[in-house]
Amino acid sequence: MAEHTTFKVFRYNPETDSKPYFQSYQVPLQGGKTVLDGLNEIKGQQDGTLTYRMSCRSAICGSCGMVVNGHSKLVCRLQIAEVLKNFDEVVIEPMRNFEVIRDLVVNMDRFWDKMDKVTPWLVADEENVPATERLQSPADFNVIRDASSCIMCGVCLSDCTSLEVDSNFLGPAALAKAFRMAADSRSVDREERLLELSKEGGVWDCARCYECVQVCPKYVAPMETIMKLREMTLKADLVDNRGTRHVEHFTELVLDSGILDERRLPMKTVGLTDLKGMLHMAPTGLRMMLKGKMPLIHPHIKDVDELQRIAHKVEESK
Amino acid sequence: MKYAFFPGCVAKQTCPELYHSTKKVAQALNIDLVELENAACSGAGVVSQQNEALSDALNARTFAMAEKQALPIMTICSTCQGAFCRANKRLRQEPYRDKINGYLSGNGKNEGGYKGTTKIKHFLWALVEDLGIEELKKRVKRPLRNLKVASFYGCHLLRPSDALGFDNPDNPTSLEKVIDALGAEPVDYDGRTRCCGFPILLENENASMAMVSKHTLEAKEKGSDCMVTPCPLCHLNLDVQQPNAEKIARQKIGLPVLHLPQLVGLALGFSEHEMGLHKHIVPTGRVVEKAIGS
Q: Which chain A residue has its CA at the smallest distance from B205's CA?
C-alpha cells in the first residue's frame, strides 16, 4: 500500500521569497484519501512550513478552497483518486482572483467586499411585523433552497472568467446571495434590488461560462441564479439596457424567421439611437462584409408560422 | 454514419466557411448529413433567460424531427450543443416533457411530440466516438506536421458536465486527440477551457476583449501557430474581433483561428480555398504554408 502520489504545491512567502515557486512532495497516500489529507500529511510529516487554511474536513466551513490542476475545489471533498483519473500528479495553487498572503492562503477581503455590496440580508416588511415568525411555505423556500446552501468558500470567484478581466464584476457568490434575497417570498425590496443589479458589474456582465456552476461544491449553481435574476428583471419590465434588449430582441428575431438575424441583433442591442455605439461597430461590420461574412438576404425556415403558434400557446398557458 | 445535421445560425450567416467546410469534410469521411432545414435556432441559452418553456418547446420540436427519422443530431457549434444538451436533460423528465409536448400539439405538425430519445453530438464527438481516432488517422492524406495547434473548446461544450457528459471539464482531451491524429502537435495552455468573452461583447466590451487577448497571447507564447475551435461564436470573438482586442491590449496578436472542420479538411487534402480560409479576418497564410507547405 506504500504507493506514492506526487503533490506539486505552490509556495510563496512574501517576506522571504522574491517570487512564487512550486515544491514537489511524495505523499504516501492514494485512493479514497482526500487532497486535504495529502496536505495534512505533508505538513505533519514532511514540511511544517507549508501554509493553508482548513477546518471542518466536511465541506461545511468553506475554508479549504484551492486550485487543483487548473480548477477550483474544496480539497476536503476531493479524493486523490478522482484527480489521478485525469492527471498524473496533484498540482495545488492558491485560489485565483484573490491576493496571495502566503502559500495557499489568500486574502478573502474581495469576497466580503462584493458580498457587502448586495445587501446580503432579507429586507422584510418592518411596518407590519407579525406576532410570530415570518413564515414561508415549502414551495416558497424551494425557489431559494439551492441558493441558500452557499458556504462562502470563494471557489466560484476563483474560477469566474468575468471577474478575471473585470474587477468591478460582483461575481457569482454575491449575485447568488442577491438572488436568494430578492426571490425570497418575504422580500419587500425586490424591485430596488433588481434595478441595482442591472448596473455595471451586475447580472448583465456575466459571460455565462458555467465555471461557477461546475465548481460549486454545494450545488448553488450561481450562474443559474444570475439567469433567474435576469428573468425577474425582464418580467418586471424595469430596465432598458443592452443586456435586456439583447435577450428580448434575440427571442423576437428567432420567432421572426427561425434563424437569428446576426445583422439586426447587434444593432437592436446597442440601440439605433445610440449613434456612438453604432459607429463603434461599423469598422467590424465593414471588415466582415468585405470577407463575405454578412449575407445580403437573411435566411429563414419554412415553418415560421409554426414557431409563432408554439410561442402563442406557451404565452397562453401562463 | 448518418446524422440529422443542425448547422446553427452562425454557420449559415457570419461563418459560412464553417458550413461549407463541414459539408465537404463530412462527405470525404463518408458521413451522411441530412440537414434539419426546418429547425429553429437553439436559443443559445439566451431565449431561455426570458422564457425557458418557449426555448425548450422550440428545441423539443427540433429533437422530434430527428427522432422521427431515427437519427442522432449533429451540431457544429459548442453553444448549440450546450443549449441542446441542457434542454434534452430537462426534457428527459416525463411530466415536464408532457407539458412541453402540449405546446407543440395542435395542428398535426408535431404528431406525438418528442419522446425523449434523440442523441445529440457535436461534430468533434462524432469524430472521436463514431468515426474513431484510429480511423481518422487512416483517412489523413496530408499530415499537418510542424503545426502547433492550441485547442479552444468553448464553455458550452464542457460545462455543466452533468448535461454535456463527454469530456472531463478539468482536462478535456477530445480536441487534442483529433489534433494529434491529424499529424499536428497539440499545445497545452490554461486558456483552452476558458471563456472567449463573446456573450458579453456588447455589454462589456473591454472585459470581452481582455478575454480574447489573454487566451490568444497565452497560446502564442506557448508556441502555437494557430488555434482551433469547435465553436463559431468563439471564432467570432477570437478571429473577427481580434483586431479590436489588439487595440485594447495595445499589442499585435495575429493568431489565426481555424474552425475544427477546416483543420481536419487541410489534413484530408482539401485546399485552403476549399476550406474557406480566405474568409477569416486574421490571415491564415502562414498556417497553411507551415502545415502543407503550399
A: A205
From A78, A107, A136, give the residue that closes a domain.
A107
Decide: pTM greater than 0.90. Answer: yes
**If you average pLDDT over residues A31-48, what whole number do you get?**
95
Write out chain B residues lying below 8 Å of A288, CB-based. Answer: 14, 240, 281
Question: At A129, which amino acid appears?
Answer: V
Are B85 and B120 in contact by the 8 Å Cβ rule? The answer is yes
Number of separate domains in chain A = 3
User: What domains can you pick out in chain B, each with its CATH number?
Assistant: 2-121 (1.20.1050), 132-292 (3.40.50.11810)
Mention every residue, 6+ apart, whose C-beta is less than 8 A from residue A215: A71, A72, A73, A155, A156, A158, A159
Chain A residues 209-228 with a CB less than 8 Å from chain B: 209-211, 213-214, 221, 227
Contact A171, A114 (CB under 8 A): yes
State the CATH number of the domain containing residue A158. Answer: 1.10.1060.10
**Which residue range forms the structural domain that includes residue A252?**
242-316
Per-residue pLDDT, B109? 78
Cell of B96: 415536464
CA-nearest residue to A210 within chain B is B159
Each residue's pLDDT tens digit, B232-288: 999 999 999 999 999 999 999 999 999 999 999 999 999 999 999 999 999 999 999
Interface of B with A in 89-148 (CB under 8 A): 102-104, 106-107, 109
Residue of chain B minimizing CA distance to A266: B202
Say whether A314 and B103 touch across the interface (CB within 8 A). yes
Query: What pLDDT is attached to residue B111?
Result: 78
Show which of A235, A263, A293 is a domain's final residue.
Answer: A235
Q: Say if residue A72 is in the same domain as residue A118.
A: no
| Segment A174-184, tens digit of pLDDT | 999 999 999 99
